[in-house]
Amino acid sequence: MSRHSYIKRPNRPLQFYAALFLVVLYLPVLFLPLFSFNTSIYVKFPLTGFTFQWYVELMDREPVWAALMNSLRVGITTSIISTGFGVFAAKAITRYRLPGKGPLIGFIMLPLVVPGIIFGVALLVLISRLGIQLSLVTVTVGHVIVCLPFAIATMIPRFEGFDPSVEEASADLGENAWWTFWRVTFPMVFPGILASLLLTFTVSFDEFIMAFFLSGTDPTLPMYIWSQLRFPKEFPSILALASIILVVSFALVFLGQWLNRDTQATDLNSE
Amino acid sequence: MDVIDQLGSLKEGKLSRRKFTTSLMAAGIGVMTTPLATRKAGAAAADQGTFFTWGGYDIPELFAPYKEKHGELPNFAVFGGAEEALTKMLGGYVVDVSHPCNSGIPRWIASGLFQPIDTSRLSNWADVMPELYDLKGNIVDGKPYLAPFDWGQTSITYRTDMFEVEGEESWDMLWDERYKGRLGSLASGGDAWWCGAIKAGVPLTEIDTPDAFEKIAAVMRAQRPLIRLYTDDTTTLEQALASGELVAAMTWNSSAALLQADGVPVRFAKPKEGALTWVCGLMIHKDAPNLDLAYDIIDSLLSVESGKFMISDYGYGHSNIKAFDGFDDETLQGLGLSKTPADILAGGHFQIPQSQQWETKMNTLFEEIKSGF
Amino acid sequence: MSITNGPMPDDATGLRKTSRLGALLQRSEAARGFTLLSPTLFIMAVGILVPIGILVVMSFWTQVGFGFDTTATTANYQMAAERPIYGALLRRSLWMSGMATMATVILSYPMAYFVAFHVHRNKMMWIVLITLPFWTSYLLRVFAWKVVLGYHGVINSALMNLGLIEAPLEFLLYSQSAVVITLAHAWAAFAILPMYVSLEKIDKSLLEAATDLGDGPIARFLRITLPLSLPGVISASLLIFIPTTGDYITPTLLGGPDGAMIGNLIQKQFGAINNWPMGAALSIILMLSIGAIAVSFMLIANFVRKRIS
């Protein structure tokens, strides 16, 4: 280990920079919860007092609850569909030699990089040409497309992380493919599936651009927030709502990443 | 965390595979049934009619009769401009009632998306002022498509303590170089372009001519560098006026009324060239999923109590003549309103319906100007 | 769970019985792989290829009132070429996301370097901590910046309370810099991952060798670390540059009249302006320009890398 001494040596300026980086990364977002407990309806310093009033008000708002339910429905459906498809896709990508695999993966991962507005607009055009009414279903379709790459990317390291010979051994022992999957593969990749469910749910729950173009009369939670941003009297309640969403998203993503942590660690290190 | 415990015990071999599978199935069933459960919970709101409207109209004060009858408020969907709303409905968005204004009536009817109103189903129709529904293109085969609801003006709201008026109030105020970077405007061409026409001295009857396009574009271009903010969001304008970020902005009556109620020193200008006058109202979608509720939404909006709220809190005119009963002439004049709206409508600049081609052309051009071209 | 009920291509019956399909599936690895991949490929084809295909077709139509004239014409593209607004907004978008990309990559690189070389325990913890904000609502993060940069927002009110300024700074909000700051902040978490991965991959013995040959820390960084981490820098740049070019929420909330981007105009073609074919044409133009820039950037970066190493 002494060979790496100069690497091991703590680099003070860099440590300071890293700490500052994290502060700047989190600080703007943390202002939302901070002001959600402030008594003034204006978002400015100095803080005027501590209150739970905005959270209490939030509880009485029916549209908030309706929007929350819409988002839950879309999020749960999206996470199940995209994780379900993602399991097969991840298995196919890691276990089989496929001709043209590289371009195919690139194609599947497209939604990660192509600007959301292009997919939103393109799907809107398709859906309106087909004469389909905009609804939560169309939002879900949009979200599945956005979430599938995340699901697959989350599960690939899981499949890479365990030895295919375990599956082969199971097959040799006379288990059929169905049971091999069910009793060997599935438990092994289960943390990845869970992580994918959590992450895709969060992405869908927070997604705005697809919802902006594809939602009908039922708003998702981000759409509702967008429509309420304009009312100063509602502003603190929206801050409260935003804070709740942030906390829940943080918790879900953290849990998801934590469940999948061993694969990521090995994956990132081995790559 | 149950799941983590389970995973832990699986790793340690405490949990048999069979047991693991069982608990997994249970979790699976849980996840699968959640959407169904939520569907049920969300159903209540789905039973109500949907009102697709401008921001600020989605408030309980306007739906007291509706709430009394149905126990809940209608569902609301909010748009920033009437063009945006029409485009969205043309794209397959279906609502029960929407909220266009007089300049859009013929085009909205021509879109084929709306049905005529059976006025016998509206208990408040008898009190609606006829000059408000007797608008160009509104009555087809003896039936109106638009039930008038609110009317008012687009003018300038300015800070009396920060904006020094030179001479008379005028549209020049929004072209005042002294306040460069502290002026605001509505972003939608439906208001701004028409106000530009008034400023440019183009008669609204001739707004469709190439000459008018040139003249109006010229004044809008001249105004562009002075404007800090174009927005369809009245609240953003109001907040900016309240904080002093803006000293004057193009707004509707309600912004001035709301700011005055908050004690902000503002005035709703009566420009010497005249303000832009408009009438907005309600149309029923041809495929309205809740037709009965659609009529209840309209009837609720046309009621005297909604009207009183519109006048007192928003400073808008209402279509129900009885809504004016509690207000004296002085109050109404202060708001720029009158019990005989015909005076106001005749005196101001009233928007004239244009073709869809004109709207697209105007909006394209206005977007270019707003972006600095 | 749907996974368990899903179609299992290598289902027992299909394998055990000598049905032709089963035999084929068993024999051809590729066929089995593709079967597993098919639901994903199907939904991606329906969700990406078909809509974009229709978008391309529509970009050759013209809007007539509420309907479309479906005779193919390049009028939209001609208009985009002739009228200055389209090109200028496109250039401005590319410029602004270029700035945001540069800022993000430069600011995130030391962080990625720190985690790769100076964090020895709980590495994963750090990675999760850095990427966490990226997963949360984009809308809320933009919104948070509006709260921070606003006229009476966090920065202005704090500075005024401290007595450092007398009137709020107006340039903070409604400007191009507001958009660039917000974009850079929003995508920082995303930028770190690829850079971290390529830094982490660097063989430490190379650094050791360089030290033995007498290289100081700076020379070592320039000769070894930087060139070897370039692939990460390239993918980070593309991962930020491509999606931000089409953004329209940030400019809408924070940009003001001078901060509008091409995404805003596209969105308006589908809204107030009501000219869908023009909007389709602009989307295609945006996609092609991004593609062209991404490809040339990659070529240049590869060339540079070859020269360095």
Features:
heterotrimer; A: 271 residues; mainly alpha; MetI-like fold; 14 helices; globular; B: 373 residues; alpha/beta; D-Maltodextrin-Binding Protein, domain 2; 3 domains; twelve-stranded mixed beta sheet; two-stranded antiparallel ribbon; 14 strands; 43% helix; 17% strand; disordered N terminus
Describe the structure.
The complex is a heterotrimer of chains A (271), B (373) and C (309). Chain A has 271 residues and is mostly helical. Helices cover 77% and strands 0% of the residues of chain A. Chain B has three domains: 45 residues; 163 residues, D-Maltodextrin-Binding Protein, domain 2, CATH 3.40.190.10; 143 residues, Periplasmic binding protein-like II (D-Maltodextrin-Binding Protein, domain 2, 3-Layer(aba) Sandwich). In chain B, strands 1, 2, 3, 4, 7, 8, 9, 10, 11, 12, 13 and 14 form a twelve-stranded mixed β-sheet that branches. In chain B, strands 5-6 form a two-stranded antiparallel sheet. In chain B, helix 7 crosses helix 8. In chain B, 50% of the residues are buried. The N terminus of chain B is likely disordered. Chain C is an all-alpha fold and 309 residues long. Chain C has two domains: 51 residues, no CATH class; 223 residues, MetI-like fold (Orthogonal Bundle), CATH 1.10.3720. Helix content of chain C is 76%, strand content 2%. In chain C, strand 1 and strand 2 form a beta hairpin. Chain C starts with a helix and ends with a helix. At the A-C interface, helix 1, helix 2, helix 4, helix 5 and helix 6 of A face helix 1, helix 2, helix 4, helix 6 and helix 7 of C.
